[in-house]
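Hi R.,

Here's the chain you asked about this morning:
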Amino acid sequence: MIGSDNRQAKCKAYFMAVIVILGSLLSVLPIISAPTLDEINKLTDLRSWDTLSIGDRFAMIGMEFLGVPYVGGTLERAENEVCSVLFHELDCVTFVELVLNLSRSIDIYGYPTIDELKREVTFTRYRGGELDGYTSRLHYTSDWIDDNVDKMVLEDITQDLGGIIIDFDLNFMSTHREYYPMLVGETNEGNLEKIKLIESFINNQRHYYIPKQQAVIVERLLKAGDIIAITSRVKGLDYNHIGMIFVDEEGTRRLLHASLGKKKVVLDKRLSEYLKSIDKHTGITVLRPLKVSDRITR
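And the predicted structure, written out as tokens:
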């Protein structure tokens, strides 16, 4: 019925407007506590997130973490590599990783337990989906992208959007081992040598990016839940930052991310404006989450 469709459209527009207003307020309000897995499962039922596309679900769940504090280095705490999953303190990588796997877990399990969620985080965080020590973690974003494209978790659409080849010369981890406890000392020389081999391997792969001057042209083609990996001007690095796209009620593509500068998860300004505001950001790689495939086995 036309009347019913109009009412649904108005309700959706109102709901989106409320979400964006809350997001803007939370960017200036104090840090808040994170939702629990049980609360996410309840919201899945209440808001019918299971009926949404993987991208729309990704963006909606991400908004539930607005205001959660930014805490870096949480994956470097353990002496032995373990798959930790934290809701209450996030950096840019663990925020995207957590929300991506919450979104995927709804398709796989419906209402995942923490052990089921950890299984999915392990699948995306580690090379080939297998935790096998410190160097099995996909430390470099370019490595994380390549591995998760191979596992059919993501599609790299950068080249389709007009992206060009970017050459990486990665060596940051091996030349700044003091930042990584599992690379420090004689007992970790084996880890260091493996990281050097991984850096060399990544440097020989082909990667694409869209220079930030061109982002304003392509951003209208971006969809809710697209993952935005931001390339770096810093010597020895591939990417500085990562976040996701949230499309507001006006159709503006805004960056939803765990912000180091603002010390929490925020819904930021228009993507192209955000990129212009930070000199060390040189461009973007765009990853689109894929629906969970039956061909992926664990």
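Residues 2-289 form a domain with the Putative xylanase fold fold (CATH 1.10.3670.10).

Let me know if you need anything else.
M.
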